[in-house]
TrEMBL record:
This is DUF5667 domain-containing protein. Keywords: Signal. It comes from Candidatus Woesebacteria bacterium RIFCSPHIGHO2_02_FULL_39_13. It comes from the Bacteria. Residues 1-23 form the signal peptide.
Length: 294
């Protein structure tokens, strides 16, 4: 009897951990804000997957309320009927709990599919691992139906909790990879612009026509801006590489996965700042080229 009571606390704590550790931090902050896509069609498909996830939460809430009611009746009356009803309600609640995680992963996969800057190889590797988690959870739902007693259901529930603990580093790895993809895309655009401007400046230096030539002092100013821009790009790439290493190592850790995930986001934030500074310096180069010598 006492074990059945403890299962209530375990189930509630487990599903709360899903909602608050993953749904709040991962979806609300990282996906919805930090890595929001510009493509409307792609965002719509993610939104649909996310709505499916939210609907599964609603279904779980209903199942959990029924579970609490049936548990209370069983603990009060201790009849065979109340025990059977408690068993049935517990089964449904645990299956709905598995559904919440399954559809969370599916929404995460949809966001990964739409992410920019992520290579096909990296995307396929992560999808292979997330699909394995979905397969395990789908099988676990079937295993639950074979439980002959409340104690059996509790044991099956404990297996899911252990599996969830190992899933968290993978979730953070996917989220961080999506964010890194946007940084990589930014890096490529900044580097492309830098190379174009640098090539243009070299052409200007070779210009022989007086009306198109720039003064030596202006060329020196342009070179300084280009040097500072290139320096910011290099420093940004160093931060980006450090973030990539942390992301690669996320799957090997569990206890500190959450903090390491946010450390990688912090590094990517610093990377983005360096690239933005590089972009602003390149604007100064363009401004110097456009303004005539006095």
């Amino acid at each position: 009897m006492s074990r059945f009571i403890r299962s209530v606390l375990l189930s509630s704590a487990f599903i709360s951990m899903i909602f608050f550790t993953l749904a709040k931090h991962a979806f609300s902050q990282t996906i919805t804000e930090a890595i929001k896509e510009d493509n409307v069609q792609n965002s719509l498909s993610f939104d649909e997957a996310f709505q499916e996830y939210l609907s599964r939460i609603d279904e779980y809430d209903v199942a959990h309320q029924d579970y609490v009611l049936k548990r209370a009746q069983y603990l009060r009356f201790k009849t065979l009927k109340s025990r059977e009803e408690a068993h049935s309600a517990t089964l449904v609640m645990l299956q709905k709990r598995d559904d919440v995680i399954i559809y969370y992963i599916k929404a995460l996969e949809k966001r990964l599919d739409e992410a920019i800057g992520v290579t096909n190889g990296r995307r396929e590797s992560l999808n292979f691992r997330t699909n394995a988690e979905i397969d395990w959870l789908e099988n676990h739902k079937e295993v639950l139906t074979s439980a002959g007693s409340l104690d059996d259901l509790i044991e099956d529930s404990d297996e899911a909790k252990e599996r969830f603990s190992s899933l968290q580093p993978l979730v953070y790895e996917v989220l961080a990879t999506i964010s890194l993809g946007r940084i990589i895309d930014f890096q490529e655009r900044v580097n492309d612009l830098y190379n174009q401007i640098k090539t243009k400046v070299e052409d200007i230096k070779k210009e022989e026509r007086d009306e198109y030539k720039l003064s030596e002092s202006k060329l020196q100013t342009i070179d300084r801006w280009l040097f500072e821009s290139g320096n910011r790009i290099i420093r940004g790439e160093e931060k980006q590489d450090n973030a990539a290493v942390k992301i690669e190592n996320l799957s090997a850790i569990s206890a500190t996965a959450f903090s390491e995930y946010y450390n990688s986001l912090s590094l990517m934030g610093e990377t983005q700042l360096f690239y933005k500074e590089a972009s602003s310096f390149m604007k100064e180069v363009i401004r110097e080229i456009k303004i005539k010598d006095q």
